[in-house]
Description:
The chain is an alpha+beta fold. 37% of the residues lie in helices and 10% in strands. The chain contains 6 helices and 6 strands.
Amino acid sequence: MNSEDEFDAWQFIDWDIDTDTLQFQLHAIEAWNQKNPDVKGHWDQWPDEMGELIVLPSGYIAPPWKTEPILSEEEETSLKQDWLKVAQLVSENENIEIEENTFTVKGKHGSTFRFDVSMEFSRWLPPNSLDSHIQSLRNIRNGARNRGYLDNHIANLEASFDSWKIETTVEEADLVFHDFPPHMVELKDCQYEGYYTFADPTEDSFPISLIAFIEMLIEDEEIWRMIHSQSLERRKALDEFDKKWPNGRPEDWMYL
């Protein structure tokens, strides 16, 4: 390719997407790879030309007073490769949608899963909850537990509880028991609580964990077995808790 025909990724950037979102980060990677004639198969072009508009792979720009790099050179290179894989998966799989920081994943049996992804804190949370938890997640990361301030302490607990939690229907998570979907014949007589739907990361690399997690949601079976297993473990724990406090469980925040 000569200089006159040099690939121009900038022409594919959609500036209507909020640049502070993961959607934009993945979109920028897509612009540098999807129609690039030099990219064959696996995406391998990082949008370095976009400068500080791209906060991946660390997920955020370090404050000016922080002199030590967030990532080592080796970590940065490895994570860039991992995020390239995420961007390609999201771009090429019609079962995956992302709007700002919220993913919607369609399972092959018709289930719908939704969750937010935080670049800065490397975790997923319930959909549309990220903005409300940002300060608390920063407190947790910085070791500020705020036990002396009840409102802040409770907010930190809520952010911690919501980490790795997802929504399994298009409706808001609730405390009601729901039937498992019809394709899970083995669980046809079981139910789960809409408020307790968690999926912990399985890999050392967050973006690789995200890929494995999304692929599990698309597979649309193992995630339900996991939720059922969690439900059984939680009921067992509650039974043990009731035996320990037979006159009722304490509600005071200090016991949380």
